[in-house]
Specification:
Protein name: 3'-phosphate/5'-hydroxy nucleic acid ligase
Shape: globular
InterPro entries: RtcB, RtcB-like, RtcB-like_sf
Order of helices and strands: EEHEEEHEHHHHEEHEHEEEEEEEHHHE
Number of helices: 11
Strand content: 25-35%
Largest sheet: 7 strands, antiparallel
Radius of gyration: 21 Å
Pfam family, one: RtcB
Cofactor: Mn(2+)
Catalytic activity: a 3'-end 3'-phospho-ribonucleotide-RNA + a 5'-end dephospho-ribonucleoside-RNA + GTP = a ribonucleotidyl-ribonucleotide-RNA + GMP + diphosphate
Strand order of the largest sheet: 10-6-8-7-17-15-14
Length: 396
């Protein structure tokens, strides 16, 4: 369903959405430089500054807090040459332990050595070259090399999945880690300072923006592009480590790359230059994926429900975008109040995961029904593959 909210430049594709999220989206849509409208995705929910699941097209301005602090957060998925029968007799707990050894988990946990894997050095070199070429200042984030290939916490995860034909997929969700957070926080503060200095009235400080023609916007866009590339490379780095662990687990002696038949790597927290409503705009997808016609994307469910590989339909009303996941129904605090560790174990029946109370706030019931989200997204994307988890790894 699609709903136009009053006379505002706001379209909602969500059948399940609360009043707080609508009010937050109204504040964003009322900004004078929004064009042609704000689109609320089916998984939209209340967030910091602007709602998660919001697509925001802006003319000659960018809102750093709308992009968010996890710049370039997104998904990567790889289909392997294996099927369910081929891995049936292997101990999934062994693979989970191997993944947890290969990829640092949880906030603040980074690589102790950046030369453990032969492919890491090449990615670091690419990121160094990009920073030097674009004048990106990284001295404020000295640990970014150690952060490459680390997962983080919250709703970031690593999974082994089976699709509708029982083919094995590797699947993970992460972003730009601490370096992206530092970049974002610095520019959010600059935007807020400038808006105060210019006496610009805002419904909330997290809608502070950087306007065209200012050096502050130019610097932010350079830093933003680098952080988005870091997030892309971070996911690729983790996937290559995951693939190596998987190859060892199944006893594959050849090049681990030979296990891979398809790879999709996409952002869902980022800003990009696009053309909408007859104008070139800065399009911020805060919890949304690119769904231009023919573009493949990834929409994960919660840690105990289905996920989807999709192809965009290029829907203009949706600003060629689609949801980025199930979207939270309850806050982390509320989820911990409502559910127990036993509830989580029941929800995760049949899935190998690390048991513990630390993950109660990620219980599937804390999220919207992914089937409802996908039904709402029918005009935005077509479904290529439906994945179900058999193994899950999360940071705390």
């Amino acid at each position: 369903m699609t709903t136009r909210i009053g006379n505002l430049k706001l379209l909602s594709f969500a059948s399940e959405i609360d009043d707080k999220t609508i009010e937050q989206a109204k504040e964003t849509a009322a900004l004078p430089f929004v064009h042609p409208h704000v689109a609320l995705m089916p998984d939209a929910h209340y967030g910091k500054g602007s709602a998660v699941g919001t697509v925001i097209p802006t003319v000659d301005a960018v809102i750093p807090a709308a992009v968010g602090v996890d710049i370039g957060c997104g998904m990567i998925a790889v289909r392997t040459t294996f099927d369910a029968d081929a891995i049936e007799n292997f101990d999934r707990a062994e693979l989970r332990t191997s993944i947890e050894s290969a990829i640092p988990l949880s906030p603040g946990n980074y690589n102790r050595a950046v030369d453990r894997y032969p492919f890491t050095a090449g990615r670091i070199a690419v990121l160094e070259e990009l920073a030097a070429a674009d004048g990106v200042e990284l001295s404020h984030s000295p640990k970014w090399r150690e952060q490459l290939g680390s997962l983080g916490g919250g709703n970031h995860f690593i999974e082994l999945c089976l699709d509708e034909e029982d083919r094995v997929w590797m699947f993970l969700h992460s972003g730009s880690r601490g370096v992206g957070n530092r970049i974002a926080q610095r520019h959010i503060k600059i935007a807020q300072r400038l808006c105060r200095q210019w006496h610009i009235p805002l419904p909330n400080a997290d809608l502070a923006y950087l306007p065209h023609g200012t050096s502050e916007l130019d610097v932010y866009l350079r830093d933003l592009a680098w952080a988005q590339r870091f997030a892309l490379e971070n996911r690729a780095e983790m996937m290559d480590r995951f693939r190596q662990a998987f190859a060892h687990w199944v006893g594959h002696d050849g090049d681990p790359a030979g296990l891979e038949t398809e790879r999709i790597n996409c952002h869902h927290n980022y800003t990009v230059r696009e053309h909408h409503g007859g104008k070139d705009v800065w399009l911020t997808r805060k919890g949304a994926i690119d769904a231009h016609e023919g573009v493949q994307g990834i929409i994960p469910g919660s840690m105990g429900t289905r996920s989807y590989i999709v192809t965009g339909k290029g829907h203009g009303g949706g600003l060629c975008s689609a949801p980025h996941g199930a979207g939270r129904r309850f806050s982390r605090t509320e989820a911990k109040r409502r559910y127990t560790e036993a509830d989580l174990a029941t929800a995760m029946t049949g899935i190998e995961y690390r048991h513990g109370a630390e993950w109660i706030d990620e219980i599937p019931q804390a999220y919207k029904d992914i089937d409802v989200v996908m039904a709402d997204a029918e005009r935005l994307v077509s479904i290529d593959h439906v994945l179900r988890q058999v193994l899950n790894v999360k940071g705390t």
